[in-house]
Design a protein that fits this description.
This protein has ten helices and nine strands. The chain is of the alpha/beta class. The structure holds NADP nicotinamide-adenine-dinucleotide phosphate (NAP).
Length: 278
């Protein structure tokens, strides 16, 4: 089943994409990583998330290899380092990213986290890139409520198309205030580390729900992350069997009993929790 999330411009993207952190670190594994991404594209995991930071550009090169000849099938997301997020810096960083990915446009370009450059400068840099046709949309990552408020009050800031944050059953803090704020601004969430880098407990509630549905506990976690319809999950998998398992999580529908069991084991936040980062 293909689940989608609607972006503020009305465009739809798959609710399940693919991450790339730690891809491209070693030349010996690059071909396998590109093949895993290609298998994901075959299965409809066509949103690919990368960053200039990952393997110092190596992950973007793996993405470039994976999408050769099939750029049109993919919704490409990359991120600029905060120290490159000045008006001129984003232009230069974007150019380097485009070259590494062997493409002429990034679909969604994110500020990786908040740094020292004023948000107004970064937004102006993104707008210039949009005008030049180098990026289609822009967004942010790791911005908590106060930073989001500042962004939305910045000239042009309301055009933000996504906020990518740490979110999985063991990291529910943003449900308290960040998600409601983003929802009221119609800005979708991209959930990173949706299986907590494979460290989520396989037993307990996730294990019990998995057993009931005859699936894997990590598939339960992915279905849970995507349950609201406005959250995009971007698990990273270098192994084809993991890609296939993740893709199958789209078919899992959690019922009220499952959600209650997960709430009991991973209680929703009752007060503000500062946004965590990995
Ligand atoms: P993750 O997706 O939660 O976990 C990745 C790990 O889980 C890898 O070791 C992978 O193994 C393993 N895995 C994947 N599917 C599996 C499955 N079905 N069964 C068992 N193990 C499985 O963690 P992440 O890579 O930190 O987060 C995902 C993506 O979000 C990143 O790759 C990156 O694109 C993005 N991200 C963004 C930020 C940010 O600051 N914006 C921060 C962190 C991550 P194999 O690789 O061996 O298959």
């Amino acid at each position: 089943m293909t689940k989608t999330v609607t972006l503020p411009n009305g465009e739809t993207v798959p609710a399940l994409g693919q991450g790339t952190w730690y891809m491209g670190e070693r030349s010996t594994t690059r071909a396998t990583e590109a093949k895993a991404l290609q298998r994901g594209i075959d299965l409809g995991l066509t949103l690919i998330d990368t960053a200039e930071m990952y393997a110092d550009g190596g992950a973007e090169e793996v993405v470039g290899e994976a999408i050769t000849g099939r750029r049109d099938e993919v919704f490409l997301v990359s991120k600029v380092y905060p120290h490159n997020a000045s008006r001129a810096g984003v232009a230069a960083a974007c150019e380097r990213s485009l070259k590494r990915m062997k493409t002429d446009v990034i679909d969604l370009y994110l500020l990786h986290w908040r740094g020292n450059h004023p948000l107004s400068e970064t937004v102006a840099g993104f707008e210039a890139l949009q005008k030049a046709g180098k990026i289609r949309l822009w967004g942010v990552s790791n911005l908590d409520t106060d930073d989001m408020e500042e962004l939305l009050a910045t000239k042009g800031g309301a055009a933000c198309a996504a906020n990518q944050v740490l979110y999985n059953p063991s990291r529910r803090g943003p449900e308290f205030d960040l998600f409601p704020e983003l929802r009221s601004a119609h800005i979708p969430v991209m959930a990173y580390s949706p299986i907590e880098q494979a460290r989520l407990p396989r037993g307990g509630a996730l294990g019990a729900v998995a057993k009931k549905h005859g699936v894997d506990p990590f598939q339960v976690a992915l279905a849970w992350v995507m349950r609201s319809g406005d959250v995009i999950a971007i698990p990273k998998a270098s192994r084809i069997e993991h890609v296939e398992m993740n893709a199958a999580a789209r078919d899992l529908v959690l019922d009220a009993e499952d959600l209650a069991a997960i709430d009991k084991a991973f209680p929703p936040p009752r007060r503000k929790v500062g946004l965590e980062m990995l």
